[in-house]
Design goal:
alpha+beta; two-stranded antiparallel sheet; 3 helices; globular
Length: about 90
């Protein structure tokens, strides 16, 4: 039987490193846990990625019905602006 840590690391390997897509049900069946536990494992991986300044997250696509690795945003470099306009830019 696999431990919780082994299951989380397996998901990390398959989905973050190998960039594979899985549905909740597939992960649940492979790891022999509930879909609720799968959601917790995914959240744990997302917190790890964020805490380590890896600007990606595992996100569920309701269209494809799978989790996949997606970019959150690209970090701004010092002195770089976001490119968004201020609400007062068009005021004369």
């Amino acid at each position: 039987m696999q431990s919780r840590t082994e299951k989380v690391l397996w998901i990390y390997l398959k989905m973050v490193i190998c960039k594979q897509r899985y549905s909740r049900d597939e992960l649940s069946e492979i790891l022999c846990v509930s879909t609720r536990n799968i959601s917790r494992y995914i959240e744990e991986i997302n917190m790890f990625l964020f805490d380590n300044f890896i600007y990606k997250e595992l996100k569920y696509s309701y269209f494809h019905k799978t989790y996949s690795l997606q970019s959150i945003f690209e970090p701004l470099k010092i002195g770089q602006t976001s490119g968004m306009k201020s609400p007062t830019d068009n005021v004369r």
